[in-house]
């Protein structure tokens, strides 16, 4: 690409990206990363896939925010905010949000419940990978269950009881 062409494309890119960026109110710089990370954690716990928990507002996080907002019957703008984080953390969940969380597979539910307890730091994706199995084994061993690393009935029952 010639330098001249690059200078012509910059205004076009800014014109297209500008309105999308401008529609979200700015978070305080010192709170931006922490707020987005908190929203990403909450999205994971609720069974949405915000991508990496990195404090960056990428496409997967924006899509997760939009899906949550739709299910919670909030205005859908895809914008991170402290109010959204508070809603996700403390507000009474609407039936649609509760159904979304209830529709998790056993592995997703185990991942979410273990994340709530700080025993699992991976994605809530329903895949029984090494992190999930290790977290399940640690939980099972701590609570006197056979450490199989599987989301079996006895393990799930105990996780659910402890999650209430």
Taken in chain order, the helices and strands follow as: HHHHHHHH
* Radius of gyration, CA atoms, in whole angstroms: 19 Å
Q: What class would the helix/strand composition place it in?
A: mainly alpha
What is the overall shape?
Answer: elongated
Largest sheet: none
The total beta strand count reads: 0
Number of helices: 8
If you average the pLDDT, what whole number results?
79
End-to-end C-alpha gap: 59 Å
The CATH class designation of the largest domain is: Mainly Alpha
Proportion of β residues?
under 5%
- State the fourth-level CATH superfamily of the largest domain: PGBD-like superfamily/PGBD
Stated plainly, the CATH topology of the largest domain is called Muramoyl-pentapeptide Carboxypeptidase, domain 1
The percent of residues in helical segments reads 55-70%
- Which architecture of the largest domain does the CATH hierarchy give at level 2? Orthogonal Bundle
Mind explaining what this structure looks like?
Helix content is 62%, strand content 0%. The protein has helices spanning 3-22, 29-45, 59-71, 82-90, 95-102, 106-116, 130-142, 153-163. The chain has two domains: 27-102, Muramoyl-pentapeptide Carboxypeptidase, domain 1; 106-163, PGBD-like superfamily/PGBD (Muramoyl-pentapeptide Carboxypeptidase, domain 1). With 164 residues, it is an all-alpha fold. Mean pLDDT is 79; it is low at 8-22.
